[in-house]
Write a structure and sequence with these properties.
- This protein has 212 residues and is α/β, with parallel strands linked by helices.
- It has one domain: NAD(P)-binding Rossmann-like Domain (Rossmann fold), CATH 3.40.50.
């Protein structure tokens, strides 16, 4: 398994890996599943530079991308970009009007895009497992799992599973989702030599004390 860890995530890692397919094949015949977080300098989804950057991304015709939290922000932009590049977008969100509204906007933005909604409440482990089972029932392989959804500065309370809401939403549920969908990522990697898990993190981590 090839890995690349930095600070934050950009759409680049949904499409291309810091480790090229050629170098991966040259180093090993192992299945290549790339995981990554991009540096803060890559946060350009809302900048004037994004359109030109998007032109450099490859086509992903026929590839399946599973993305959590696509109603706004980086998740919405990632879903739209993947669709524009020919990929099929599986959007995992908890049920709300925001999901319906975001889906409608995406369809308008990319009329030929393939968007699939799967209900997934990250504050409910049972819902996460059910969503994973639905994805596995629809697909035999996926090219990318983007663990994008996240919350912060929420009230100090626990989920029905007994975990802190932010910890469960941002980390624990995504851990379960990754575990459950790993066979589909491995299937893609075995066939094409390339699959990836993209973990999104917060810039707030840069404000933490750095221990020597």
């Amino acid at each position: 398994m090839q890995s690349n860890w930095t600070h934050h995530c950009s759409p680049r890692h949904l499409f291309t890996s810091p480790i090229s397919a050629a170098s991966t094949k040259a180093k090993s015949k192992r299945r290549a599943i790339h995981t990554g977080r991009a540096s803060n300098t890559n946060i350009i989804t809302m900048s004037k530079y994004f359109p030109k950057f998007k032109e450099t991304l490859p086509n992903v015709d026929g590839k399946v991308f599973v993305i959590t939290g696509t109603t706004s922000g980086t998740g919405f932009v990632a879903a739209q970009t993947v669709a524009e590049k020919g990929g099929e977008v599986v959007m995992l969100n908890r049920k709300s009007q925001r999901v319906t509204d975001a889906h409608a906007k995406l369809v308008v933005a990319v009329p030929a895009g393939k968007f699939v909604n799967v209900e997934c409440d990250l504050q409910d482990f049972a819902s996460v497992k059910k969503a994973a089972e639905e994805v596995k029932s629809k697909y035999k392989k996926i090219h990318c799992l983007s663990n994008n959804a996240g919350i912060m500065m929420t009230p100090d309370k626990a989920t029905t599973d007994g975990c802190d809401t932010q910890m469960q939403t941002n980390h624990l549920s995504h851990f379960i989702l990754t575990k459950e969908l790993m066979p589909l990522l491995e299937a893609e990697a075995a066939e094409s030599g390339d699959a990836r898990i993209v973990h999104h993190s917060s810039m707030a981590r840069d404000g933490t004390k750095k221990w020597s």
